[in-house]
């Protein structure tokens, strides 16, 4: 399958570049930044946007709430990706996607600025933040905004893994909190164990190792919780 012409003209920028090496090589990081740059500003749909916070076990969790101009018919708690270590509420996978979902699906969308791994943050802190956002919407201050329709939980990439882990936690606590009526998982980590990397997956595994590596001081265990390995 041929590459999209827009990407084909830029693919030379990432030749020989890995995420791991770019962290310590400014020249490679500049090439990555140029590769991902979009020459056109995205057009954000006309929706109401409000920045709020939800209380959580590790402190307040940043939220950005999107509401359609028409009456909301459903709701979604949305988690951006970024390899568990990157991303924020302003990235397109959070801001633009949440606005589009609110606009196209007549949905109240709560985008979650969960804490990122590193600098003392590790499992299950991001899941705790996602859980706190869910409880805020379904039981807490946000419940007054909730439409009568279904409430879903979703995310992209690492955010999809966190959404799935949060859904399993809610399932295991059945009777104590509302569970999602649906899951919206975009390109999630959804294999346990991972499928074979034979046939060209070695480079991808090398890249994932950057995010999977646990620095000294992080707790490890041979007993993996269902929320840490969410698709077992």
TrEMBL record:
Keywords: Hydrolase
Region (Disordered): 213-232
Biased composition (Low complexity): 219-232
Residue span, Alpha/beta hydrolase fold-3 domain: 76-195
UniProt-recorded Gene Ontology molecular function terms: hydrolase activity
Pfam families with a match to the protein in the record: Abhydrolase_3 (PF07859)
Domain of life where this protein originates: Bacteria
Secretion signal, residue range per the UniProt entry: none
PANTHER family, sorted: AB HYDROLASE SUPERFAMILY PROTEIN C4A8.06C (PTHR48081), ALPHA_BETA HYDROLASE FOLD-3 DOMAIN-CONTAINING PROTEIN-RELATED (PTHR48081:SF8)
Descriptive protein name: Alpha/beta hydrolase fold domain-containing protein
Organism: Actinospica durhamensis
């Amino acid at each position: 399958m041929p590459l999209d012409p827009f990407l084909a003209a830029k693919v030379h920028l990432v030749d020989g570049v890995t995420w791991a090496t770019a962290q310590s090589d400014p020249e490679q990081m500049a090439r990555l930044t140029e590769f991902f740059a979009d020459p056109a500003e995205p057009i954000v749909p006309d929706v109401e946007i409000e920045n709020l916070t939800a209380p959580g076990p590790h402190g307040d969790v940043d939220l950005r709430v999107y509401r359609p101009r028409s009456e909301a018919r459903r709701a979604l708690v949305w988690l951006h990706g970024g390899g568990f270590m990157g991303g924020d509420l302003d990235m397109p996978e959070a801001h633009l996607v949440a606005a589009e979902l609110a606009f196209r699906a007549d949905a109240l969308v709560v985008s979650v600025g969960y804490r990122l791994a590193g600098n003392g943050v590790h499992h299950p802190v991001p899941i705790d933040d996602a859980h706190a956002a869910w409880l805020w919407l379904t039981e807490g201050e946000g419940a007054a905004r909730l439409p009568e329709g279904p409430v879903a939980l979703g995310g992209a990439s690492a955010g999809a893994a966190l959404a799935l882990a949060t859904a399993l936690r809610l399932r295991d606590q059945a009777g104590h909190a509302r569970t999602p009526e649906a899951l919206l998982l975009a390109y999630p980590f959804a294999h346990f164990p991972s499928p074979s990397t034979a046939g060209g997956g070695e480079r991808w595994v090398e890249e994932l190792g950057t995010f999977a590596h646990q620095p000294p001081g992080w707790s490890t265990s041979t007993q993996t919780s269902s929320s840490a390995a969410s698709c077992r």
